[in-house]
Hints:
The protein has 470 residues and is of the alpha/beta class. The chain is built from 13 helices and 14 strands. Helix 2 (70-82) packs antiparallel against helix 10 (329-344) and helix 11 packs parallel to helix 13 (441-464).
Amino acid sequence: MNARPNRFETNADGWDGPGGPQDLYFTRDDSWPYPRMVRADNIYLFDENGSKYIDASSGPIASNLGHNNRRIIETMKAQLDKYPFNTIRLARSDENIALAKRLAEFAGAGFERPFFVSGGSEANEAAIQFARQWAYAHGEVDRKRLFSLMPSYHGGTICTQVLSGDAAVAPIFEGMATMPERIEAPLSYRPPDGLTHEQNEDRICRQFEDRIVEVGPETCLALFMEPVGGVATGANVLSGRFLKRMREICTKYGLLMVLDEVMSGAGRSGKFLTTQHHSDDCKPDLVVLAKGIGSGYIPLGIMLAPAQMVDELSGLTGFNYGHTSNANPLACAVGLATLEELEERKLIENAASTGPYLMERMRALSDECPIIGNVRGLGLLQATEIVANKQTKETFSAEAKAPDTLRRMGLDHGLSLYARRTNNGQYGDWVMTSPPLITTRDQVDEMVARFGQLFSAFTDAMVRDGVKIS
């Protein structure tokens, strides 16, 4: 029998022996000397050598309030002194009640009942469970089939990983969870040849309805979509007309429509919920929040549901699922303080005004940069797509490892970036340009200047490696 490889052998970072940072789990080809951050403030990170970086993507689009927010830190200290934990199975807490009330006020009619969990994956799982429990309680026991867009991302558990649209990941877990029905995402930068973006949207809506009819409406449970995508689509924005038509189809055949606002929610889009940019005839049944609502200070995820549905379901079967840390007082206190910061500092309004300025500056940069194919997004959830050829929209080869290379080179230019190749690059490559909601216009100018230097250095490196850029 072959001997097992020595997991303590020195890796590319020079780490040997037991223990080590969690990035040792990453594929060996992606192993490199990550910086060791030792402190952070505002939109900046500082490593052990004193180097300063702009947090240009809010970590993984999570640090909405930036770093070292004193209100959040003092709230956490006070709550720890008071009491940090109880279980909702045994007691209520003032923090849970207060956060639920304020969330309902921010979210508006139709989202009166928040359900608290520990992150986006759990929140999407809760939405799947809620949809299934709703159907089961109403005698529609065959409704089990889920729909999602390709590409998309909905979480890191097995169920939400399978729900996500990533052809490179799904086969690993195929058979461990029921595969959803895949509907093409209307990618604004890459519609099929010969179609306008609107024509492509209409085609996809017909595809969705045809598939429901084909498999049987009585088996169809829910549709999950990101109104503005994250790293899976490079901040692709779903239009109001597309959401309206998908809403109509869901209503016609009895599916619940779920909007995954793990990244786009909590003010990042320029509204508290992205759905608030659109008319009520686009409104989903359920909304999922995470990331920005805890702003990187505490794990917190939320499913928002209508009071009518929750109250009716509680009278039928109840929704008796959850986790150990559901609605714990510490997380709820942080969520409440986050809402206070958003409101008092007008950070949602800042995302609405600074976002277009960032997009304007990045698009101006694209005019002089041969590798920027597209800049898109909404509010301060944006991405910049990179291409080897602007005219043909040709992507870089897999060997170029363009997103990872940009992420690594970004550090040399004072940028901490969120970028990785998804779907083996089938739908393009991009880097997220989504700084915290506290970002000022002067900081946008500083960030864009560094991006200009980074893209110039990246282009030179690609050319030196023999990559043709045109």
